[in-house]
Amino acid sequence: MAKLQTVRYSFIPNLPPGNYGFVIQDVNTAKGSYTVSYVLEQQGTVWKLGGLYIKPAEVEGHDGNWFATRARELNAKGENRAAWFYFQQARELLVPVSFMSTITTDKLYDESQAVKPTDLPPPICRQMGRL
Description:
The chain is built from 4 helices and 5 strands.
């Protein structure tokens, strides 16, 4: 059965005006579950592939909801640093692509900000692998 979730907003940087489609598939394989997403662009009467995103839907057999629950449990115990990392993993698993957000992931973001460690390197360093 397909899982439906209302997308609040999405944003693809530098996308020119046009007609676009976004398709999300939940794919189960012998090696695990994956989310496959396609950005499609209409050119005339033909739809062409504009982007392909494939990512795991689980980590070690656990989905985003499992990580969110563990994050809240860790937060309740005062283990804020661990809770923050679990919130990050939950969000990553609950969105098909990084530029998409839902009401659920917005709430996770808000919860994570309350426990965010103050001694983390700036985001650009984490993105570039400079720790």
